[in-house]
Amino acid sequence: MAGVTVLVGVAALAGCSSDGAEPAVGSVRTIVEFADAQPGDLIALRAADTDPTVVEWIDRRAGTIRSVDIEDPAEITVLASIDVGTDGAQRGLLGHATIDGTRYAAWTDPDTGHLLVGALDNAEPASVDRVVWDAGGTAGGAVGGHLAATADSKLVLGIGQLTDWAKDHGSGAMLQLDPLGPADQEPVVLSDGYTNPFAFATAGDLLWVADNAVGDDTERTGVIDLAPGSTRVDRDDLDTTGENPRAPSAAVVLADGTIGVCGFLDAELRPWSPDPPGYGAPIGPCLTGGARLPDGTIVTATANALVAVAP
């Protein structure tokens, strides 16, 4: 990505939450700024598997996965590069996850517009090795495409309601894929009825998810048990937010095992409590991505920067 500026200033986040409570936030430090980034370019943040101070993220329109050491941000590493289609607001490189040392990604194909999930090779930077699943055609929005890995080495994909698969199925859904399966495999439907489930994260046998809403519907957030034999939880069984829409755009597993949800409309990371259901005071700024590092630092994506929120 062109126009990278590394900043070292530290500032306190000002402002209050929507309910008037003081924000539960420490210092916020800008790690690296991208002068040419547009809102929604910096997505799918995750902590690196082996380096405790390294965060990885996707540049959606460029089709790259990158990493930076938040303690030494002078050098940015390109981990993978994939040719992607970017017509419309939500196409591009959309998700990534690792299982047993192999990185998987989800993207929209530049020739067909299909949503594809694939395994990457071991090159530097990596590229597509094989396709794991072809979800069919996409519209410019409500694509989904976020990925996570389960404790038993499966892939979880959130797929939006305007994809061909969702139109045939009747709604968007949370799907489980076999990372070693063929491109025409039949996904396991973990939960359906969704609009565009892009904000979700796995924590052990739990899948936390926050879904967008359209029309008179309400945004919903909750948890799905992934353990074998668990009762299926559909979108309508999740909790309503009970407040103004936030357009959930990313989820971060917090230290207590629950999640923080980033909102595209309010650009805040706020914790979600299931009992009673609702959001707490802001943790820090967040537009489209977040990850918690081993020391508790939370790294988030704003419109044009990665920032670190002290634990």
Walk me through this protein's architecture.
The chain is mainly beta and 311 residues long. It has a single domain, classed as Neuraminidase (6 Propeller). 2% of the residues lie in helices and 48% in strands. The chain is built from one helix and 27 strands. It has one helix at 164-169; strands at 4-6, 10-12, 27-34, 42-47, 54-59, 64-69, 72-81, 93-99, 102-108, 115-120, 128-134, 144-149, 155-159, 172-177, 188-194, 199-203, 206-211, 220-225, 239-240, 248-253, 259-263, 268-274, 277-279, 284-285, 289-292, 298-301, 305-309. Strands 1, 2, 3, 25, 26 and 27 form a six-stranded antiparallel β-sheet that branches. Strands 20, 21, 22, 23 and 24 form a five-stranded antiparallel β-sheet that branches. It has a four-stranded antiparallel β-sheet with strand order 4-5-6-7, with no helix packed on it. A hairpin with a 3-residue loop joins strand 26 and strand 27 (305-309). It is globular and about 45 Å long.
Short descriptors:
6-stranded antiparallel beta sheet, disordered N terminus, 311 residues, mainly beta, Neuraminidase, globular, 5-stranded antiparallel beta sheet
Summarize the structure.
The chain is mainly beta and 311 residues long. Helix content is 2%, strand content 48%. The protein has one helix at residues 164-169, and strands at residues 4-6, 10-12, 27-34, 42-47, 54-59, 64-69, 72-81, 93-99, 102-108, 115-120, 128-134, 144-149, 155-159, 172-177, 188-194, 199-203, 206-211, 220-225, 239-240, 248-253, 259-263, 268-274, 277-279, 284-285, 289-292, 298-301, 305-309.
